[in-house]
Specification:
- The complex is a heterodimer of chains A (406) and B (295).
- By secondary structure, chain A is α/β, with parallel strands linked by helices.
- Chain A is built from eleven helices and 19 strands.
- Chain A has three domains: 91 residues, no CATH class; 132 residues, no CATH class; 147 residues, no CATH class.
- A nine-stranded mixed sheet of chain A has the order 11-12-13-18-17-16-14-15-19, sandwiched between helices. Chain A has a five-stranded mixed sheet with strand order 8-7-6-9-10, sandwiched between helices.
- Chain A starts with a strand and ends with a helix.
- Chain B contains nine helices and eleven strands.
- In chain B, the strands form three sheets. In chain B, strands 6-5-4-7-8-11 form a six-stranded mixed sheet, sandwiched between helices. In chain B, strands 1-3-2 form a three-stranded antiparallel sheet, covered by helices on one side.
- In chain B, helix 4 crosses helix 9 and helix 6 packs parallel to helix 8.
- The mean pLDDT of chain B is 87.
- Classes of the chains: A alpha/beta (406), B alpha/beta (295).
- Chains A and B meet through strand 3 of A and helix 3, strand 9, strand 10 and helix 8 of B.
């Protein structure tokens, strides 16, 4: 229950005190008698006011207290904040968050709350229908754009509106348009804490290579040793990913899906850059695999074509390489190849496991308090009935008083 | 408003049977009645002889005396006549209001009927004049047998209200020998007094019945506001502390009324509303005839 004009409650309280005080003042008004010889009586005061220890005319006082209370409540305009007009939370949910983090953010919501899950596309869903799905990348500007479109309609249907965000605030999720769109939203945004639960089944730093026979990448991984990948890494050299690979990725590991294909024809010297590492070797571009829509490039050929793509999966990620190796040679054993592979298996760690602090311009409203509070556009449906009840009681009191004095 | 039941009128009339209301002043009427008239006429009971003067009725000559003594004398004897009576009844609101209810108005009607019955018993024409807020109600003096019944019907149908003036009703009256004013004298008392004095000076017999309520004589109500029924703006506290001043003021008023009316030559009688009506009528008759003390 909230009040659109709470000052009326204070005024009503004063009015109630006034009624009680008036009934403590006994205004003795003697009964009138018809006396033909009244002219022979001396003149004097016809009424006297005295202070009584207990209120007089208690039924009348009760009736008048009801009138004042109903009037004050009516003017105060009560608004129910229960199920009909809720305090609604609008949650901007980063879909790249791990499942458990998303579930934790959704757990505090009520069925009337609204969730705007976002990645590259933000849609409006009610809380029960919001199915956490991992996708990448998550652009905050899309969520804010969506919120900007629906904010007014939500504010009209809500008693108060609270905007919250659960995100990892990855640097790549904030594009130049984000602050501009944020400035158009007058509300403050609460940042929900995101806890990334630990618990990788793989030993920390271990690189597991799933390959058949003498695989050159397995040798390189062996040379790298442990502690290269903080949350572990899996290099899948098969034709497709397995369920174990997906499970490892969901638990935070970096899964490198690098199909073991042999370079056909004469090898050409190529360069692949991942992060700050570039591996120059006779490599082949397969080009047979097309990138999925939710994948993004994290490694590039020298001409800028994507060589390594990544998509998030659970708490980890899956890297897909479209690179074929020569049938013979020790290029994978070079120091450059080892450093490049070490950089490759840590790409996912940099991208996924971190939770950056929310920028200051995101949480605070751009102009201080909201220009138009959500409650300002509300109306109280109970207020007219309360005022009408007060007027009816006042009429009853008037009629009863007249009948009494008649 | 309290209306006397018919059997109460009957009891009153029975109680007043045989009461004679003799005129204190000799009436000037010529109608033969029960009162000794002021005029000397040819009655059978000779009281004196007077020498015949030119202009005397020859039929009043004592022919036998003329034959014996050759002197012309006329026979003189006091005449008897009726005394037309008018009862002026105050129908103001003050007569119907009071701490004890409308007892003054009830007593006034009983007195009115009782006096009318006594007067009618002597063969006198009796009339009624009631001052009301809506105008005066008049019954001319008549000696018919049903005049008392008609009076009962009239007074029972009335409702007192407002503050009518009594004095103007007494102007221009002719042929009335007795005027009985039944009032609480709380209206136009001074004007009424002047008009009554004028009537006395003209030779009429004026009897003032000052009706007072017993509750007005001894106030017993406390913590109330007394409102004048004829003037709602006149409101006075009816506290115990005011009783003494009230008694003094009201007593002074009644004393003044009594002395002023007596000074005019009228008869003044104060009747309370709790007095039995028959006794009150007898008191009035005695006081009017001069055989009883004016209260």
């Amino acid at each position: 229950m909230t009040w659109l004009a709470p000052w009326a409650l204070a005024a009503g309280g004063l009015g109630l005190l006034g009624v009680v005080a008036a009934h403590l003042l006994s205004r003795q008004r003697p009964r009138a008698l018809s006396l033909a010889t009244a002219r022979f009586l001396p003149t004097g005061m016809l009424e006297a006011t005295t202070l009584q220890p207990i209120p007089i005319d208690r039924w009348w006082m009760l009736l008048r207290l009801c009138i004042v209370a109903l009037l004050a409540l009516g003017v105060a305009q009560p608004v129910r904040t229960g199920s009909s007009v809720p305090t609604r939370t609008v949650l901007l949910l980063d879909r790249t968050l791990p499942l458990d983090a998303q579930r934790a953010a959704l757990a505090a919501l009520t069925p009337t709350d609204v969730v705007i899950p976002y990645d590259t596309l933000a849609v409006l869903q009610t809380a029960p229908a919001a199915t956490p799905v991992n996708a990448a990348p998550a652009l905050l500007s899309t969520a804010l754009s969506r919120l900007l479109r629906v904010r007014d309609s939500l504010a009209r249907r809500s008693g108060t509106m609270r905007i919250a965000i659960a995100s990892r605030f990855a640097p790549r999720s904030i594009d130049p348009a984000t602050p501009v769109i944020r400035a158009l939203i007058p509300d403050s945004i609460t940042v929900l804490p995101v806890a990334l639960a630990p618990g990788a089944p793989l030993a920390r730093g271990a690189i597991v290579v799933r390959a058949v026979g003498d695989d050159p990448i397995a040798a390189t991984a062996h040379l790298l040793g442990d502690s290269v990948a903080p949350l572990g890494a899996v290099v899948q050299r098969g034709a497709s990913l397995t369920a174990d690979d997906s499970l490892a990725a969901r638990n935070g590991a970096t899964v490198v899906w690098w199909p073991a294909r042999v370079l056909a024809g004469d090898p050409i010297l190529q360069a692949i850059t991942v992060g700050s590492r570039t591996w120059i070797a006779p490599l082949g571009r397969d080009g047979s695999r097309s990138a999925a829509p939710l994948e993004r490039a994290v490694g590039w050929w020298a001409d800028g074509a994507p060589a390594v793509t990544m998509h998030s999966l659970g708490r980890g990620c899956v890297l897909s390489l479209d690179v074929s190796l020569p049938a013979a040679g020790d290029q994978t054993l070079s120091l450059g190849a080892q450093a490049w592979l070490a950089a490759l298996v840590t790409v996912c760690d940099r991208e996924v496991s971190g939770v950056a602090p929310a920028p200051a311009w995101l949480t605070a409203p751009p102009g201080g308090e909201p220009a138009v509070p959500a409650a300002a556009s509300m109306t109280s449906g109970t207020a007219p009935w309360l005022v009408a009840a007060a007027l009816v009681l006042a009429l009853v009191e008037l009629v009863l008083r007249r009948r009494r004095t008649a | 408003m309290a209306v006397p039941a018919l059997h109460e009128y009957g009891a009153l009339l029975d109680a007043l049977r045989g009461v004679r209301w003799m005129a204190r002043l000799r009436p000037r009427t010529t109608t033969v009645g029960a009162h000794i008239a002021r005029r000397i006429g040819p009655n059978v009971e000779v009281t004196e002889y007077r020498p015949y003067r030119q202009g005397d009725d020859p039929r009043r000559l004592d022919w036998k005396l003329l034959a014996r003594t050759d002197r012309a004398y006329v026979r003189l004897a006091p005449d008897i006549a009726t005394s037309p009576t008018l009862i002026l009844l105050d129908g103001s609101a003050s007569m119907g209001a009071g701490l004890g209810g409308a007892t003054k108005w009830r007593q006034a009607r009983m007195l009115c009927v009782g006096l009318a019955a006594v007067g009618r018993g002597a063969g006198d024409p009796v009339g009624l004049l009631i001052a009301l807020g809506t105008g005066a109600r008049r019954l001319a003096p008549r000696a018919r047998g049903d005049v008392v019944r008609e009076m009962i019907r009239v007074v029972d149908d009335l409702t007192v209200d407002a503050a009518p003036q009594l004095a103007p009703l007494l102007e221009g009256m002719r042929g009335v020998e007795r005027v009985v004013i039944i009032s609480d004298l709380l209206g136009d008392a001074d004007a009424l007094l002047g008009r009554g004095a004028s009537l006395v000076a003209r030779g009429a017999e004026v009897i003032v019945v000052h009706l007072v309520s017993r509750a007005e004589l001894s106030l017993g109500v406390e913590r109330a506001v007394a409102v004048d029924p004829e003037d709602a703006t006149l409101r006075r506290p009816l506290a115990r502390t005011a009783h003494r001043a009230y008694d003094a003021s009201f007593g002074e008023f009644r004393t003044a009324m009594r002395s002023r009316w007596l000074a005019t030559g009228a008869r003044y009688v104060e009747i309370t509303d709790d007095q039995p009506p028959a006794d009150a009528v007898r008191t009035l008759v005695r006081a009017a005839a001069g055989t009883g003390a004016s209260a």
